[in-house]
Amino acid sequence: MASLDIQGVTKSFGTTKVLHGIDLAIHDGEMVVIVGASGCGKSTLLRIVAGLETATSGAVLIDKVDVTPLEPADRDIAMVFQTYALYPHMSVFDNMAYGLKIRRLPKAEIAARVKEAADLLSIGQLLERKPRQLSGGQRQRVAMGRAIVRHPKLFLFDEPLSNLDAKLRVQMRAEIRRLQKRLRVTSLFVTHDQVEAMTLGDRLVVMHEGRAAQIGTPMEVWARPADTYVASFIGSPAMNFLPATLTEGGHAARLAGGALWRFTDGARPGREGAAITIGIRPEHLMPDAAEGLPVTLELAEPLGSETVLHAHLADGTPITARVPGAAAADTLSLAPDLAALHVFDAATGKRIDPA
Amino acid sequence: MSATIDVQRLAAASRRRRARERVMTHAALILGVMIFALPIWITLIGSTHDTDTIGRGDVPLLPGSEAFNNYARAWSEGGGGRNTFSVPASTMLLNSLTMALIIAGGKIAISLLSAFAVVFFAFPFRMFFFWMIFITLMLPVEVRIIPTFQVMTDLALINTMTGLTLPLIASATATLLFRQFFLTIPDEYVEAAKVDGAGPMRFFKDVVLPLSVTSMAALFVIQFIYGWNQYLWPLLMVSDRDLETVIVGLTKMIGIGDAQNEWNLIMTTAVFALLPPVLVVVLMQRWFIKGLTETEK
Amino acid sequence: MRKKVIFRGVTLPYLLLAPQLLITLVFFFWPAGMAVWQSTLREDAFGLSTEFVAFENFTDLFRDPIYLNAAWNTVVFSSAVTALALGSALFLAVQADKHIRGARVYKTLLIWPYAVAPALAAVLWLFIFHPSIGLVGKALAVIGVEWDFRLNGGQAMTMVIIAAAWKQVSYNFIFFLAGLQSIPTSVLEAAAIDGARPIRRFWTVIFPLLSPTAFFLLVVNLVYAFFDTFGVIHALTRGGPGNATETLIYKVYVDGVQNLNFGSSAAQSVILMVIVIGLTAVQFRFIERRVHY
What is this model's ipTM? Predict the structure, then answer.
């Protein structure tokens, strides 16, 4: 168990810069999830931490020791790969024991550790099998077991759940979280799935085009997204964005359609009439015939306990709402929970907080 | 702090290891390339010197001045020292080229047809015939030299280009490769052809052939080399020196390896014999590797 | 194995198959059958009368010291060629598979000998090992080795082995390289993280995963050494000196073409056929098994 510090890590492949200086400090026993769309550099960052790629500049510190020049073998880390990367010619037992044999642990100790991990993952009855005789979920467990037996300082997960079917993914997600809390091993987990990120991480790093767009707890990231990218990436269905201008000395937003929405948490800095983007999550829009914005309904998706409404405003701006119960007529009015408004700079997309 | 020292030691060790590995890798590969290139280099150099220089055993390592003479003489007259009859390299090369092209083309043509029949039709004894073709893999020319020679005599094919090429045109490997490839053509294509009212030969011409171009190119490289490099078969089949192929002709020039041979001309002829297949492999490298690894697996 | 959707018709497929089948029947099955039949016959010295002798040609062969010598030569020659060609190809393929500068150039420079005919390979090495005009041949004389493969059987064998193996390395190299490239990178990375250094990684992970390729190549190389190297021996040593480099395939040629001993040559052909069939069968059993990997 250890802390992990990533300091100013950049990476270029030829002339393409894929990481623009990442700084991240992970405490002992913490699980941090790196989430982002494909090509955002998240896997590259993980592989730099593992030592499988060399950073162009910057440093990786494990337990405050600079391991940047070290090979993966010398970093005392374990990694679970997206494809599991089990050794196809070795039994489950040998797959898990391989790293320990290389480190010349006594036979009895190896057997004990493998058994312990196998029990923890309930794969004790599979130890003699070859990987090709296992199901996807079982392979996933073996890959986990191979990491656990090593008692490493750091667990690295490279999208380990993306090859599983939906049901198994949810189950393994919970299991990984449970195991990680129990073993208290510092972990770095890479995924493109925002639900996985929200449920697994003590903290999230949302990456966008080689930069950390936001680092924070899942609730922070959800409640106070740093920019429109993060806001749209986290949360489902995605946040609505409405063009507006700042008015009334920063106390309210004038929507393009004319409606005036007052901020409940104080004035935003900025000149009168500055272009802003108002963000409102679908679950914070309620049908309200009196006060709401009139919208035209295009599609209602009933999910049982609630309904997702896809609609557009009079000027054509699409808008999505998540309302309890079943949906109503073709035209209706939607009103925001004014306490749940997000304000972003229209030009930079950055969040604007009350001054 | 002890951990820090440890890191420095490990980092230095891994740096050393990487540097050492890189040097070793290049050294090993360069050595390998040199072992492959050495005989060619010696031959190329030898082909630019006069007969006496080589006959004396001086073993030159740098090019001489006789290149043009040697190549011109080997091309139009041939050579081989005390060999009374010499065949010009141009004749032998033309024979080899004709033979290799007929064999490669013929193998591709008849294998395409037979694979098409086996994959896209159902007819009595289909698998029996398939196995019959397949089993020829186990009957290389070398194990049936004498009886095959007798068959060729009976059919009056000795000393003919037909005799030289026809028996080598049957190909289990090519049939297998095309069959393998045809099996990957989606059933929907056949269905679409049927719906469009195209008959089997129309389908063959409009769909199968265009899709098979890459496989054909790959096979061509392999079979061209196979044809060019034939040795035992022409040795048996051809005594008429106008039909001599370059590989067999070359070894006949050497005879028993006498020092009085016109070694410079022999080396020149070796370069001629080497060039076409090597060029084919180098220029068509991608297809060649694909063809090789896919036919044999 | 076959398509669900097919064309109708019986005559057309037979017509399509006809050329291949005709050549196969006339030039493969008929001679092979004749070889089996002839192996049970014996002609007198003048070729005037033929008698049926059943298995006598075979039993004579196994009592003939020259044949047994050829069999032993074949074992020595084939195992040396196979070991040399496989070993060096694997070594070179592992080097060329690394991420180093110029990897592609190295690959091209290592695969071209595939195009060289075995007989031509022999000629090229003759230029080097010839005792009076060859670079190495003369160098050996200078350092006091009495080098003349035309007189010394061991030296002759060494030379045909080198020439035959040299030509085959490229083929093996191509397959080993393809095998190496089909090993998932993540498996090798997992091994690196598990702490395995390159050499250990090679023997515990890479080599076991290459073993299907290696086995396939083993059979192919044996077949090559048995049959395709006729040209090497014919061009270099003609089976000599004495019978030092006479292999089974070369002896079939000598007895059939030079000595005109058809019965014995045919019997030898039949023995070789059995060997090829055996090797091919082993290979196919193995291919069926390894599909699971």
Answer: 0.85
